[in-house]
Amino acid sequence: MTRSTAGVLSVSRCCIAVIIPDENLCSNSILHPFLYFVKGVFEKMSEVRLPITDFLSNYARTKPIRAHMPGHKGKPLPGFPALSAAFPYDITEIAGADSLFEADGILLEAEARTAALYGSGGLCYSAGGSTLCIQAMLAQMQTEGRTVIAARTVHRAFLNACVLLGLQVRWIFPEDGNLLSGHYTPAQFSSALRASVQAGERPCVYVTSPDYLGGIQDIAALSAVCRGYDAPLLVDNAHGAHLAFLPENRHPIALGADYCCDSAHKMLPALTGGAWLHCREAEKKPLLKQHMQLFGSTSPSYLILQSLEASTHWLRSGGIERIRRTAAQAEALRAKLPQYRWLGSEPFHLSAAADGIQLAAALRRHGVECEYADKTCLVLLLSPMTEEWEFSRLAGILAACDPGAPAVIPDLPEPPEQAMTLREAALSRWEQTPLTEAAGRICGPVQVPCPPAIPVVMSGERITPGWCNVLEFYSADPQQAGICTVR
Length: 487
Ligand SMILES: Cc1ncc(COP(=O)(O)O)c(C=O)c1O
Fold this sequence. Notes:
alpha/beta, 7-stranded mixed beta sheet, 4 domains, Aspartate Aminotransferase, domain 1, 15 strands
């Protein structure tokens, strides 16, 4: 125990200061058990500190004249009860509310609590989703002068960040030809890293894991490979905020990644837009914050930030057990339905090889709305908030439906030639070209439907007849399909 330890406990909105002034007191045999009891109580009670929530509640309760933004002034808007209930807590950076990108108060404290839960070196809250986190991770790589080696299965947020930053990418294509949920081996990254280092570059590696279907890459093996080349490993873990809390910790940071983003809003009870950016080394955090403010709004939503704190609190107070229970329930559900060929190994993505379009329509008739469907698969996204009765209903409905035959994914052609830089092509004047006339032209800005928002051909790549076939395969309406081209 330190010579003078002071703690402020928040108990039902009243504050108690605990001051232990002299270290001799701590070694006193009579006082010793008492002081440890007080320390224990302090630690227990400090677990329920909710700095953002407490600040917002206090501010709403004191009802000051709000001579600051936002314009609703915390007042109800007739006819919009849900918004009216939220407005009193929707504030801007007033005194005491801290400032997200220069946090040194309540936001810093909330971030530290979430970081401790995950065991991250540093963690930044994002009210701009994983999209903002991906932009910041890549900006960090740019300041280090890194070349980006990326597994081709990327969300368009990655591609857009590369366009904004003017980054070029060395792509690794999936061994099994599946662009949505590809299989990549550490050996593929190892040879790309070797070639990059031999060319005098300082590489980094970027992978998406879990992918949209719940496919998981071998992050532990990949991080070992990256370390051998002094290359940071960046993971788009937008779909994996819960992975740290499975019986076996499968979170990228625990497995050796240097940076990763988690969309808390996808798998935990957070508001849409709530995400966190982790770094393994604490000293990287200040620069990450600086990069986040390059791209983020200067008015991050305090409602979203509060929901990040709430998710952390929920995890600490029973949420972890709920996550484990849901993983077991999902496993049991899969086992009950052997007629389905399940894809991916992440438990909350209930993904099946199927004629997803007709299966999704059948499920909709039974009152189930899926996350994603195409002619090869269907994805039902679970979370720890999925209840027992929903598992039972889903099991019954899925048993009554026919998954149908999934379309066969075409083999991938040779990687396309990069005829222009990503940035140049994405920011050039473009025209819409039917796929039947696209061969030989250069892909312009990528317009890819979300979900799953995974580009097939990237900006600046020359489209070959083989890639036209792949584009046609993934089009919702091959007759009408077109692509933006710049030349
Ligand atoms: C794999 C992947 N990465 C990144 C993103 C972007 O995340 P966000 O919506 O939190 O900005 C998404 C969104 O769906 C995604 O699926």
